[in-house]
Amino acid sequence: MNFNEKYKKIRHLIQKEINIIEEKMVTNINIHEPLQTSVTNFLKAPSKRIRPLISILYLKACGEDPTDKQLEVLTLVELVHNASLIHDDIIDESTIRRGIKTISAEFNNKLGVITGDYILSIVLEKLIQINNTEITKMFAKTIKQMTIGEINQYFERFKLGTLESYLEKTQDKTAYLFETALICPALLSKTTHNLKKISKLGLSIGTAFQIRDDILNFTQNDQLKPTKNDITEGIYNAPIILGDKSENYTSGIEKTKVLLNNYIQSAKNIINELPENQYKTALEEFLELLINV
């Protein structure tokens, strides 16, 4: 089985919860047509929903069935992610996302910016209703760091940074939202969780996920995402930073795979402490999917 087939098998375990989240995502969209339909279609377009997936699997591995409030928080995580994608598509001048036209391509950049902002406003509104200060702080920090990551990346274009600066950018742009997806439902749990370990798990998986994506940018042909596209944009990620300056980047890719494995192992060490059940097994299988690049 390929990645998508294996991932679908893992996701099947929690498809009921994913369906609820996907329905919640579009419930509060109420804007002018035809933008209403376009945004709804964008949010409903086939997506892996990786952030809620790992969170729900973790809760279930701990013996918890996610409450409606926990699923609401995970819906907000997905809305933040999708708002960032709409903004990313403007920055990257992308015309296709998930097999359909991007909001900015279908309309224009102005509406793209406003649409992303509108989705974030829904997140703020819902956070007020959830009324949990720690969760609100977590979302505020994450959104701020995502923005800082984009700003720093812009000003560091065409500069060969350090591995440390790359990992900091990776945490800002990607890993903090994974951490939020794991921490916030735990904050709503009746069970006492080790938040420090959950934080490390989220950051480890989020960082690994981005490192894997950066490797695939060199090795995978995808018409929707041209190989080595980041290089032409002046964005130098781990395979270049760790490379030997040769044009085929083989050395850098292999060293980046070692880096990826380190973060996967960090996540495995935490998951190993969970009770033995099908959800723990699914988390382990998911990590194995990330390793295979």
UniProtKB/TrEMBL annotation:
Enzyme class, spelled out: transferase
Q: Does the keyword Metal-binding apply?
A: yes
Q: Which UniProt keywords apply?
A: Magnesium, Metal-binding, Transferase
Q: Name one Pfam family in it.
A: polyprenyl_synt
* Cofactor requirement: Mg(2+)
Q: Which GO terms describe its molecular function?
A: heptaprenyl diphosphate synthase activity; metal ion binding
What the entry lists under Gene3D superfamilies is as follows: Farnesyl Diphosphate Synthase
What are the GO BP annotations of this UniProt entry?
isoprenoid biosynthetic process
Q: Please report which protein family the annotation says this sequence is part of.
A: Belongs to the FPP/GGPP synthase family.
What is the protein name stated in its UniProt record? Heptaprenyl diphosphate synthase subunit II
Q: Per the UniProt entry, what species is this protein from, by scientific name?
A: uncultured Candidatus Melainabacteria bacterium
Gene from which the chain derives: ispB
